[in-house]
Amino acid sequence: MIIFSYTGCYFDYPDIRTLKNKLKKPQIWLISSKKESYSDFIDHVITFDSKQDQNSHPYQLQFIASLIAQEYARRI
């Protein structure tokens, strides 16, 4: 499972936190522009530098999603 969270607060919402026991499998990859400590049920964190402004927000995540898809296609 790949989760994109620009600010890294995806799991900060109370309703999501109650599901943490169900989120142990499959592996969770979090992609975020916020470098911090995340919950132990997140297996891998990939961070990227960002100005955290509204203009770059959607484009950075689209670019990263595109890179992941291209690399996956290349390996398969």
Features:
globular; 16% strand; 76 residues; three-stranded parallel β-sheet; alpha/beta
Structural overview:
The structure is a single chain. The chain is α/β, with parallel strands linked by helices and 76 residues long. Helices cover 30% and strands 16% of the residues. It is built from 2 helices and 3 strands, in the order βαββα. A 3-stranded parallel beta sheet has the order 1-2-3, with no helix packed on it. β1 (2-5), α1 and β2 form a beta-alpha-beta unit. The longest helix is centred in the C-terminal third of the chain and has 19 residues, at 57-75. The mean pLDDT is 78.
Find the structural class using helix and strand composition.
Answer: alpha/beta
Widest beta sheet: strand line-up: 1-2-3
The helix content is 25-40%
N-C termini distance: 18 Å
Largest sheet: 3 strands, parallel
Regions with little confidence, pLDDT below 50 for 5+ residues: none
Strand content: 15-25%
Shape: globular
Our count of helices gives 2
The H/E string reads EHEEH
Radius of gyration: 13 Å
Number of beta strands = 3
Mean of the pLDDT scores? 78
List the helices and strands and how they pair.
Elements: E1 2-5, H1 14-17, E2 29-32, E3 44-47, H2 57-75
Parallel strand pairs: 1-2, 2-3
